[in-house]
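Project outcomes to date are best conveyed with an example. Our students and postdoctoral researchers have been running inverse folding experiments weekly, and each run begins with a structure described purely in tokens. The record below, which covers 156 residues, was selected by the lab manager from last quarter's runs and is presented without edits.
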């Protein structure tokens, strides 16, 4: 990825976070959850790419498309090893909480037209998604920077 691609991605991220904050503050909770989910998808891919495990992950999918569920499970499998740098950033409950949120989001989306929603259920889930996105983004950034520093140090 060249500098122009990185700049474009940065600008897009900035815009999406503005939209996310605006959606949350204006009660557009479904839009907020849509953006949160997209950010989770992107950050889990970024983690695997920085770990240099993206190709292995894709190969493990045996022709099936990537999913947030399978990416998270793959990261968890790698993070289970104490000697893997992923362990430091992703061996706690964050990724499990992310999967629980995703399942709850999916349940709510399917319940929308059946009107089987509790009062404030959607807004609470959108707020929880924002917390998870912030935490995932923070950890992914720290992990990615640590990997970049290690590679720079290891390169003569």
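After processing, the design step wrote out the following sequence:
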């Amino acid at each position: 990825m060249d500098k122009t691609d990185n700049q474009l991605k940065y600008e897009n991220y900035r815009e999406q976070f503005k939209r996310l904050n605006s959606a949350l503050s204006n009660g557009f909770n479904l839009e907020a959850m849509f953006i949160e989910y997209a950010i989770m998808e992107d950050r889990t891919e970024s983690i695997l790419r920085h770990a240099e495990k993206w190709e292995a992950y894709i190969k493990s999918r045996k022709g099936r498309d990537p999913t947030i569920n399978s990416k998270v499970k793959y990261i968890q499998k790698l993070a289970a090893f104490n000697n893997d740098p992923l362990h430091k950033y992703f061996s706690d409950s964050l990724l499990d909480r992310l999967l629980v949120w995703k399942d709850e989001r999916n349940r709510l989306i399917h319940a929308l037209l059946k009107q089987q929603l509790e009062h404030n259920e959607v807004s609470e889930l959108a707020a929880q998604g924002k917390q998870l996105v912030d935490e995932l983004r923070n950890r992914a950034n720290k992990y990615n920077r640590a990997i970049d520093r290690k590679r720079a140090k290891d390169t003569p």
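DSSP finds seven helices and no strands in the chain. The two ends are 21 Å apart (CA to CA). The training component of this project remains on track.
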